[in-house]
Each structure stands twice: as C-alpha cells, then as structure tokens.
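Q: Structure tokens for this one, please.
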Amino acid sequence: MNQSSAYAIGDTGQKWGATEKQAWLSMQQVKRSYQQQVVSKIAALKTHFTVEQYGELSYSSKQYPLFVVKSRDWQANKATILITGGVHGYETSGVQGSLRFLETKAQGYAEHFNIIVAPCISPWGYETINRWNPDAIDPNRSFYANSPAGESAALMQYMAALGQNIYAHIDLHETTDTDNSEFRPALAARDGVVNSNWNIPDGFYLVGDSESPVADFQAAIIGEVRQITHIAPADENGKLIGVLLEQEGVINYATKALGLCAGFSNAEYCTTTEVYPDSDKVDDENCILVQVAAITGGLDYLLQLAKRI
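A: Here is the predicted structure, written as tokens:
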C-alpha cells in the first residue's frame, strides 16, 4: 500500500531510500531570505559585538555562511553563556528572538558574562521553512560525534575549537501545528514506522535535561515568560508532547542521548524553549519577546545565584 494515506512520499513500512529523499527535496521551495532577514541583521551588530563566520553550507549550488555573535569584553573570569536559535529553521521566533536579544539586551549582560549567540544554525531550513536539512536529516537529533548534519557538525567544531566551558545554554525553539500536520508524518514515512501525533500544547513550555534538570533555573524562566504569554497546561494525562510534566511548563528529555543541541555543550544549566506561535493568543512580535524573556529570565536567575554564593 502506498504511504500516501499518511504522507505523499514512500511506501508503508519501508524506510526512505535515495529516491524518496530526492522526491521530498524536490517538493521544497525557498519562501523567505536568510540574507535579508538574518544576515543583514547580524551585520548590523558589528558595531557592538564581534561577528565570526564559523562555517558555510552549500546546498543546491547556494552558499549559506554560518555566523556567531560574541560579546567583545571577553574575560576568563566570566562565565560563558551559549544561546542558539534556528536549529530547526522553520521555528522563526528562535532565530528572530536571538537577534532581538542581541539588539536590545545582550550588552547589559555582557558586563557579567561572556556571551556567544548562534542565531540561525539551519539557514536552508529557515529559507524553506523546514525542520530537516536537504538530506532529510533533523539537525536537532544530530549533535553527536561524526554528525551526518553539516549544521550540527559546524557548530560543534567551532565550539570545540573555542575551548570554553559553557555555564548555561539556552536553545530557542517552537512547537507548531505543522509538527502534527507535516513534520511528524514525514518523519514516520522516512523511517517506515506508524505515525503517532501528540497534542500540540497551547502555550509556552521548556524542555530540560533529565540528567541535570536544574528545576529552579527552569522555574525562573517560566516565571519571567508568564509575564508576557501563557504557560502550556498539561494534557489529561499530565503530559506535554507525550512526556510527564516535571513542574508547571517543564518537561525533561535525555538531551545528550537524543543528540539535541541543548545537550552537546555539557552546560551546567541548559534548557530548550518551546514557543507556540499558532495560538490565537499571540502574534509574531509576542513570540519574539517571549524568547527574549526566556533568555533574560535564565540569566537573571544566574546573576542572583552568584550573589547568594
């Protein structure tokens, strides 16, 4: 039986091969400009920050330079903070939220921290509004040694060469209605398994690290975000996206075992934000402000923690 009853490509129960992956790739189209919406904003930050190109991806004869933005007053006695956005390129507020943080808040925190921001890890995904890269690989399941995703490998190589211990890592994401309508069905088709959608949470939530959940850090972020948007309630089973709630608005994943971006840095404090842009209670600007609030909420907690020590 053809997979078309669940997804347009592939046969039920059979993993995709090169033919199916090429068919999927042929369906993807550029819908917006990485250069205009991201790179131009990064260039404008050079007045106050150090901008470094850490790699370049080449897809379909198009080049995608990869950038990090760093605070200038770099000092060995400061804790180093990593903020990442656009691991999934379609999750717009993660990209634009990291840029807005740089534009409006980062200089104030640079007095206390060394700050590194990778605003858009998956530029092809940003342009095509996609979760995967052109090889049908999810970069946010590919942060491990010998990664098959160029997006993940490039950032890991850069950070390894930088040689900094990362104190806190905040990875900016979204959970969207298209997770159920497109991306989970595509994943099931690609892997030749039965698709099982979950309820999309209506509101903001966090994904912590099950090995080091740092509950107070997560709670501080939730408290800051609550001032701007609503926090996702658990479903009837006490879960968000199929995972039991650890506290209000927080679930935990095995970030390292799953190859998630939040896990590769081995940060003492790490979290993944999840904004819900399809809620009728928010708009694009609200989603960007929520990402900024999540970052500042986490950093304010760390500053208060330092004062208590």
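A few notes: DSSP finds ten helices and ten strands in the chain. Strands lie at 50-59, 62-70, 79-85, 113-118, 166-174, 205-209, 239-240, 243-244, 250-253, 269-275.
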